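Progress note, sequence design subtask.
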């Protein structure tokens, strides 16, 4: 094997580790979004529950005000009854008081229903509050862990960058230039073996003469189809079948 190939393989391994760490860091952003989304959902549900509690309370208060108004009417009619000397008017005022009492009875029935709804909604509100507290606690914990992983990955990347510079420095300049150009275009599978007489990167058949040349390892060979750097080791299958 050409000596630069061995150095390139080390370099490629470093680049793969770097790419992997960078991918992991990018993935952390997605995890943060997921963690935040549970909290945001819980916040929305909690706000809706609070809003409904307010509405129920307002309905209950409204009904009480209506009852109070009917009671006031009854008192007014009763006073008018005492003042009147007209028997028909006296009876009419009596009927009006009865109507008010019926209205009050209906209002109180409705109020009981609203009170029951307030009771059952209190459980919903409590559950929403519990979920919000749990989601926020989980969020704080998860975000802390994600931050820690990011810090570790960045430290790892710094170390890898130093190792990469070291490995790259050992490769002959023109070969390194070609490698870097390929890496920018094709990722981290650039120095590839040949198998069954084909390029391990693009899998296109290689000319017989190239295969023989690559086998000798006398110089750096590039795939005529994709430009990748080719090499051969004894455990590779050389036959074209
Ligand atoms: Zn190729």
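Output:
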């Amino acid at each position: 094997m050409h000596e630069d190939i061995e150095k390139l393989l080390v370099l490629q391994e470093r680049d793969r580790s770097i790419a992997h760490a960078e991918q992991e860091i990018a993935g952390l952003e997605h995890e943060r979004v997921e963690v935040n989304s549970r909290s945001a959902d819980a916040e929305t549900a909690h706000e809706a529950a609070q809003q409904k509690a307010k509405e129920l309370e307002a309905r209950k208060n409204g009904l009480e005000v209506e009852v109070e108004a009917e009671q006031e009417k009854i008192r007014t009619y009763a006073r008018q009854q005492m003042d009147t000397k007209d028997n028909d008017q006296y009876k009419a005022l009596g009927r009006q008081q009865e109507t008010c009492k019926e209205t009050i009875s209906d209002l109180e029935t409705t109020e009981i229903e609203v009170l029951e709804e307030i009771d059952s909604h209190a459980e919903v509100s409590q559950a929403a509050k519990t979920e919000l507290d749990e989601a926020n606690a989980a969020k704080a914990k998860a975000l802390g862990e994600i931050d820690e992983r990011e810090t570790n990955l960045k430290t790892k990347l710094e170390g890898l960058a130093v190792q990469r510079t070291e490995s790259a420095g050992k490769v002959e300049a023109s070969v390194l230039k070609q490698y870097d150009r390929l890496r920018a275009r094709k990722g981290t599978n650039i120095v590839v073996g040949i198998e069954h007489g084909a390029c391990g990167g693009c899998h296109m058949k290689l000319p017989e003469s190239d295969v023989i040349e690559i086998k000798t390892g006398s110089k750096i060979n590039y795939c005529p189809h994709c430009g990748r750097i080719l090499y051969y080791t004894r455990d590779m299958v050389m036959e074209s079948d």
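Residues 87-169 form the longest helix (83 residues). Work on this subtask will continue into the next period as scheduled.
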